[in-house]
Design a protein that fits this description.
Largest sheet: 7 strands, mixed
Distance between the termini: 13 Å
Mean pLDDT: 81
Radius of gyration: 18 Å
Number of strands: 11
Order of helices and strands: EEHHEHEEEEHEEHHEHHE
Helix content: 25-40%
InterPro entries: DUF6615
């Protein structure tokens, strides 16, 4: 077994972060790595696949990368990733692809996220559907995502699948647990507030504008520099401080839409999430998302 150390950038610049690259076999007989390493490697793979698609003139869909990445997470981490897909018919209603729930090794602390995926349109280098309107009323998808997330007490985020070596030189300040490489942004996260601000700026959707507030998605499971003893606590601290997710209704513009939007770490998830985390099929499903992914912190020891 080998231990490696990385040092996080500000504000966790001087906080040593030790990750164990386990050489133990997983139950599937494959080499087992940490969630941190897997999230980063999937970002690299997505970046590479998007680059290949760019070279041959092929445009992938969001669903392609979402499905492949979830498959890899489940295969590499069968005791840490629990997932169940539902239906795609309600995406226009809630503006979300998947719910993500982060929990600790004892499943006693939880943080819920609602994730909308967007893929870079390679020929134009834009996120062509970032400001998509859905339904008969033609409401912005981001508005629906915000409203439904508030109702369910989840944090709304966008997950970007992208590629472009020339656009990342200004993103060094957002890189924490690892050296800054363009490939680590193959799967990136941006807050919903950033999408709303871009919409007010003539519906900006070009790559430069969108990635100005992007963070590699491994930040959710890697860097402890913002504090917190468990995975959901560390992720919440990263989102609230590193990505400036508002921590109270007073920090939002429209208080009538807030609801439980900025719910922090909770002791109990909805029953359908608990059932999925226990490897069971829920009796009742109260979400209209495509599916639910539970990410459980590995046991320490």
């Amino acid at each position: 077994m080998h231990d490696f150390q990385w040092h996080c950038a500000a504000p966790c610049r001087n906080v040593p972060v030790t990750f164990t690259l386990a050489t133990l076999n997983s139950p599937t007989g494959t080499m087992h790595t940490t969630l941190c390493e897997t999230f980063r490697s999937l970002a690299f793979r997505t970046f590479d696949q998007m680059g290949r698609a760019r070279r041959v003139g092929h445009q992938p869909l969001e669903e392609t990368f979402t499905d492949l990445n979830i498959l890899e997470l489940k295969d590499r981490h069968p005791t840490e990733i629990f997932c169940q897909a539902f239906t795609k018919s309600q995406e226009g209603k809630n503006g979300a692809d998947w719910e993500w729930w982060l929990t600790d090794s004892l499943k006693s602390k939880w943080l819920g996220l609602r994730i909308q995926a967007k893929v870079l349109h390679l020929s134009s280098n834009t996120f062509a559907h970032l400001h998509y309107k859905s339904g008969k009323t033609k409401i912005y998808q981001s508005t629906i995502l915000k409203r439904e997330s508030a109702k369910d007490g989840l944090i709304p985020l966008y997950c970007l699948y992208l590629h472009d070596h020339s656009k990342f030189h200004k993103l060094i300040k957002h890189c924490g647990s690892f050296g800054c490489l363009a490939e680590s942004y193959g799967c990136s996260l941006i807050p919903l507030s950033h999408v709303e601000s871009l919409r007010k700026k003539k519906k900006a959707n070009d790559l430069n504008s969108v990635i100005s507030n992007a963070h590699p998605w491994h930040c959710l499971v890697c860097c402890p520099g913002y504090g917190g003893d468990s995975l959901p606590e560390r992720a919440w601290n990263m989102l609230s401080h590193g990505m400036s997710i508002p921590t109270s209704p007073n920090q939002t513009e429209n208080k009538s839409e807030v609801g439980q939007l900025f719910t922090r770490v909770t002791n109990e998830p909805p029953p359908y999430v608990r059932a999925i985390a226990e490897g069971q099929r829920p009796d009742t499903i109260t979400t209209s998302a495509w599916g639910v992914v539970v990410i459980k912190e590995a046991n320490r020891g």
